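Morning F.,

Quick status update on the modeling queue. The single chain you submitted on Monday has been processed. Sequence for confirmation:
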Amino acid sequence: MLYEDMLSEINEEEISKEAKAKRLQELHEFIKSQNHLHDDHGSAIIGSRDQNPTFQE
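Structure tokens below.
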């Protein structure tokens, strides 16, 4: 689900407060995950910076 879709669902007036809170949490997690996918320069981060990459043989 894209950010815009999630945001439009949250802004619907007919959903309950519980559903709105759940969707806000999902949106928060989505934004957090998107921020972790890129470094400070906008390059995609693949793997961990703490250890060397491991390749399948």
